[in-house]
Design goal:
The complex is a heterodimer of chains A (about 290) and B (about 325). By secondary structure, chain A is an all-alpha fold. Chain A is built from 15 helices and no strands. Chain A is about 75% helix and about 0% strand. The chains are: A mainly alpha (about 290), B mainly alpha (about 325).
């Protein structure tokens, strides 16, 4: 990795200023692309193979059994895979929206107001939430069970709403994108604080809030430990937990490996699609951030 | 009447001190709360969630860590197992538990491998994406960010299967190109690199995007001036851009450090695949998980959790103290 840094640094000494394309940074970037895409390419190819072909074929030699594997996965345990997919969308979508709302309120509150206990509360929220998930998982589970919410959607959804990272980012976005003068002017014109927040600050913060939603959506989509502890019935599992149980079964029953591979591929496709569809939003978002 | 007027008269001299009151002195009451209460109303949902999801469970963990199970008689029947106060005996067990401390050391070593490589790559890629005269920037941004869309657990399962001797495309390529025998990715030392590689693969893109975002928010005039003065892209990247995104680099470093100590998904998935190459107590959280769930000792698990939480708390406070002022220096206090 230090070699990468050195080559980038050395690039300046090459007579690159006369060339239109700088070769070294471009090739470093392309190496990164290959590294990032390799496992995805491998899964794509591996999911077309039968279990025997997985062993016998070359790593990047495709088989012709994708449809068979897909059908096997879809029929596995009465189609439970698609239930996992829907559950994941529900957890990630609902949690992401709620999280963006809470982060916007909190971040704006912290960035634009002075009040007693501000520094203390902000540090508390950040540091308190840096407590590892597993530390809280047992008592969270026991408390949730006392409330009668164990093995319900709420058990996974509620802890997903609060995100330290979202609050942190929202505070930065509110500080950078909503000028004090604008809030001041709104107050002068007699706008109430909530009205100012909803009509003026939120639109200015929207690109940032989309980012917070996306981050939290992905975080919940990726979450494993919380649902793994909270849920006991298979038809409430998200994809990560479901596929893990499939892999677990696969270690004693290797014929399930091809199902795991197809399942892994299908489980990452929606997010990849989301990233490409929202590419424009990412760009708008990043461009909008540069207003300064 | 007179008393009402006098209230206004009294409140007026104080008004210039507060901006909000100057705006609508004595006007009709609005539906919105006064700015003095507004910030509390704004942060109330987060605080309530924080208390319910974090503080109460945390308090409960402390309580559990001071309890133990007492077995009376032969340990049979319903009433024979009771929860009783244990004092600090669970903590004594924790401090003499070599496995837990080994797992902490392992997590630290893992972090020492992962974080410099991941953040180094993230900085390099972010600077390349922001540089001029580089091709394929759009492709690079999307592709390197893509692993972030893959759940850590799924990514670890995929890499884990790619490490399996029978499937491994890496060993296949090494054999095909160089004729080398396969690497054992689950070997005692190599396994650190194998697990760290999953972390680098999954984490570089995210950190790259954070850094790239902050690069894009810098005022472009600074580099225009430098370009006119004859600075090349490398000099602009290293001397101007890098120092200016320091707060963002610090931020990513803090979050990565904390995430590293909490690492669970990658080694947990690897444990399932590696035939024991990754033990059940490989990282602190795996140790806690094992003691709590597999060994079914929630009291010992709680004590371990508290010790780990305190370690992380100390670490986080130190780092936040050092950086908070730098990052939020310009706001209203």
């Amino acid at each position: 990795m230090s070699a990468g840094l050195l080559t980038t640094a050395a690039q300046g000494t090459a007579p690159s200023r006369t060339r239109r394309v700088s070769l070294l940074p471009t090739s470093v970037l392309l190496l990164g692309v290959v590294y990032a895409l390799l496992p995805i390419l491998w899964v794509l190819i591996a999911s077309t193979k039968t279990n025997t072909q997985l062993d016998s074929y070359g790593a990047f030699q495709p088989g012709g059994s994708f449809v068979t594997n897909f059908k096997n996965l879809t029929s596995y345990d009465g189609g439970v895979f698609w239930t996992w997919m829907l559950n994941t969308a529900l957890y990630a979508g609902g949690g992401g929206i709620l999280s963006a709302v809470v982060s916007a309120l909190t971040g704006y509150g912290f960035a634009k107001y002075r009040f007693r206990g501000k520094g203390f509360l902000f540090t508390m929220i950040l540091v308190g939430m840096l407590v590892p998930a597993v530390v809280l998982a047992v008592p969270q589970y026991l408390l949730v069970a006392k409330l009668g919410l164990a093995n319900t959607y709420w058990a996974v959804l509620i802890p997903s709403i609060i995100s330290p990272y979202g609050i942190y980012l929202a505070r930065i976005y509110a500080g950078a994108s909503v000028p004090d003068e604008v809030i001041e002017a709104a107050r002068m014109d007699g706008s109430g604080e909530w009205r100012t927040f909803l009509r003026i600050a939120v639109p200015m913060m929207t690109p940032g809030l989309v980012t917070i939603f996306l981050f939290q959506f992905v975080a919940i989509w990726n979450n494993f430990l919380l649902p793994w502890l909270m849920l006991s019935s298979e038809n409430k599992y998200p994809l990560t937990v479901g596929l893990f149980t499939l892999l677990d079964a696969g270690t004693s029953q290797p014929s399930l490996y091809s199902l795991v591979l197809v399942g892994s591929l299908l489980s990452i496709l929606p997010l990849i699609a989301l990233f490409f569809l929202l590419q424009r939003f990412w760009r708008v978002d990043l461009g909008a951030g540069s207003v300064k | 009447m007179t008393s009402a007027t006098s209230v206004h008269e009294h409140s007026r001299p104080a008004a210039p001190a507060s901006r909000a009151r100057r705006v609508r002195p004595g006007g009709p009451r609005r539906w919105s709360p006064s700015p003095r209460r507004t910030p509390y109303a704004l942060i109330a949902p987060a605080v309530l969630l924080f208390v319910g999801v974090f503080l109460v469970p945390l308090g409960y963990t402390v309580y559990l860590s001071l309890q133990k199970t007492q077995v009376s008689g032969l340990g049979l029947g319903l009433g024979s197992r009771k929860q009783v106060a244990a004092g600090f005996s669970n903590y004594t067990t924790v401090f003499h538990d070599g496995e837990l401390w080994d797992s902490i050391l392992r997590a630290l070593l893992y972090g020492c491998i992962l974080i410099p490589i991941m953040l180094g790559l993230a900085v390099i890629f972010a600077l390349i994406l922001d540089a001029q005269r580089v091709r394929f920037q759009r492709l690079g941004r999307m592709a390197i960010f893509l692993p972030y869309a893959v759940p850590t657990l799924i990514g670890s399962m995929i890499w884990g299967m790619m490490y399996l001797p029978a499937f491994s495309p890496i060993n296949w390529a090494l054999h095909a190109v160089f004729g080398i025998q396969g690497i054992n990715f689950f070997g005692q030392r190599i396994v650190f690199l194998s697990v760290a590689n999953i972390g680098v693969w999954g984490g570089t893109g995210f950190n790259m995007m954070v850094l790239y975002t902050s690069l894009r928010s810098l005022p472009q005039e600074a580099y225009e001036a430098a370009r006119i003065d004859g600075a090349n892209e490398r000099q602009i990247a290293l001397r101007i851009k890098l120092p200016m995104i320091r707060p963002a680099v610090i931020m990513t470093a803090i979050f990565s450090t904390i995430a590293t100590l909490q690492v669970f998904n990658e080694p947990y998935a690897m444990h399932q695949i590696s035939y024991g190459g990754v033990s059940t107590t490989w990282t602190p959280l795996m140790t806690i998980y094992k003691d709590t769930y597999t060994a079914n000792n929630i009291y010992l698990g709680s004590a371990e959790s508290i010790v780990i939480a305190l370690l992380m708390f100390a670490l986080s406070v130190t780092v936040l103290r050092l950086t908070n002022r730098q990052i939020f220096g310009g706001e209203a206090r």
